[in-house]
Write a structure and sequence with these properties.
single chain; alpha/beta; eight-stranded mixed beta sheet; 5 helices
C-alpha cells in the first residue's frame, strides 16, 4: 500500500479524507478514489502506484460508520431479488461527494476537466452517481466491480453535458456479490446516454485484482482530458 497522510478533518471540506504520499507539489490532475462498503479510505491507496506523478490522489471516507475502521456510503441489504439500498443515504453521499470534489479542486487549483473519480464496489457506484449527475465537475469516472444505481435516473444530467464524460467499467466475470450482469447493464445504459466508455471483464470474483488495476491505470494514463489547461486552473 502506498503511504497515506493521517486523516484530515477540515471544517471547509464535506468529508474526512487522506492523501496519498508523496503528494505532488503542483498537481495538475486529481484522482478521487472511493472505498467499498465495510472498508475505509486506505483500501484503494495502492491504485496510486500506477498513476502519473502530477496526480493528486485523494481518499475520502464514507460518512456511515459500520464498525471499527469500517465505513459505507449507504447501507445495503443483499436479497434474493437483488441489492436493496437506503436511497436517501445514497443520495446524501452523492451530494457530499460533489461538494467535496469541488472543495479539493478549489484548494489545489485543479480543473474539473482534469479530475477523475473512481471506486471499488459501493465506491464505484458513488463514482458513477457523481459523474452522471454532475458531469461538469469531472472528466471521467471508474466503476470497479460496482454498478450504476437504477435509483440515479431522476438525477441524471442532460445528454449534452454527459457527452463530455469518459467512463471505465471493470468487472469480474465470476463476481458473486454483484453479478457481471450489472456490468452489462451499465454498458448498455452508458451507450444509450451517449457516454464514451470502456467495459472490461476479468476472470475473477468480487475483488480488485492486479489485472483490473492495470486496466484502470492504462485507461487513466490515456484519458483524453477535455482541455489541457483551463483559465485559473493548472
Amino acid at each position: 500500500m502506498n503511504s497515506v497522510s493521517p486523516p484530515i478533518t477540515n471544517d471547509g471540506f464535506a468529508l474526512t479524507y487522506r492523501q496519498c504520499l508523496p503528494a505532488p507539489k503542483q498537481p495538475s490532475r486529481l484522482l478521487v478514489l472511493l472505498h467499498g462498503v465495510g472498508g475505509n479510505e486506505t483500501n484503494l491507496a495502492g491504485l496510486a502506484a500506477g498513476v502519473p506523478d502530477d496526480t493528486l490522489v485523494v481518499l475520502p471516507r464514507g460518512p456511515i460508520q459500520l464498525g471499527f475502521d469500517q465505513y459505507a456510503w449507504f447501507r445495503v441489504a443483499f436479497t434474493a431479488n437483488g441489492p436493496r439500498i437506503e436511497a436517501d443515504a445514497a443520495n446524501a453521499s452523492r451530494l457530499s461527494l460533489i461538494a467535496f470534489v469541488q472543495q479539493v479542486q478549489a484548494a489545489h487549483g485543479i480543473s474539473p476537466a482534469r479530475t477523475v473519480i473512481a471506486g471499488f464496489s459501493q465506491g464505484g457506484i458513488l463514482s458513477a452517481s457523481v459523474a452522471l449527475s454532475a458531469p461538469d465537475g469531472v472528466a471521467g469516472f471508474g466503476v470497479l466491480s460496482g454498478r450504476i444505481l437504477p435509483e440515479l435516473e431522476p438525477y441524471l444530467a442532460d445528454r449534452s453535458s454527459l457527452s463530455n464524460l469518459q467512463g471505465f467499467i471493470a468487472h469480474g466475470r465470476h463476481d458473486d456479490k454483484l453479478p457481471v450482469d450489472w456490468a452489462h447493464r451499465a454498458d448498455d445504459w452508458l451507450t444509450r446516454l451517449g457516454v464514451a466508455h470502456e467495459t472490461r471483464l476479468y476472470p475473477t470474483g468480487h475483488v480488485l485484482d492486479a489485472a483490473m488495476l492495470s486496466g484502470f491505470h492504462d485507461w487513466f494514463a490515456n484519458l483524453e482530458f477535455r482541455h489541457a489547461l483551463v483559465a485559473g486552473h493548472r
